[in-house]
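Workshop exercise sheet. Pairs work together: one partner reads the sequence aloud, the other fills in the structure field after running the prediction. Swap roles for the next sheet.
Pair: D.N. / O.F.
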Amino acid sequence: MNPSYFVEKLKLLKSGEAFNRNGNKHDHKRLELAFKEITEVRNPWRAEWLNHRYSKQDSRLQVTYHKFVNGKLEKVTEPLNEDTLMQDRAPGISLDDWIENPTSQGLPRKSVKEGSLYFWHPRENRVARFGAGAGRSDLGCDGGPMGSYSVVGVAVARKK
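Structure field:
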């Protein structure tokens, strides 16, 4: 899932205004629990790979990811949004401010408020992930693309 969709998912869960495929409103408490399951600082460790890979072209950082274009999933490579926060914050940034006002690529803006979410900015030849565990929660755009952990899952998606 790319960071833009991930941010929208978090925003929807936090809002408490989600509906199932039958058009029935989900229970607000269940949505709150799902949000906490993803973001809360506690054991066990949880994480989600985010579909972003960073590279350079002509000394400019760019991002490659998948997104829907005219109803079809396409691989896109474009320059990294110039408003993206490009410094590490450990800690951190505000989770709420990030999900309420991300860049067009789903990343924190330079103006993101301070908070407890650790953030590692995009780096060349790296990938993104979101994780939460006993010590902290973090958005890392500095992960090794070959690294994998069997405990990192994926989100369920269904075709409508």
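Discussion prompt: The longest helix spans residues 3-15. What would you look at next?
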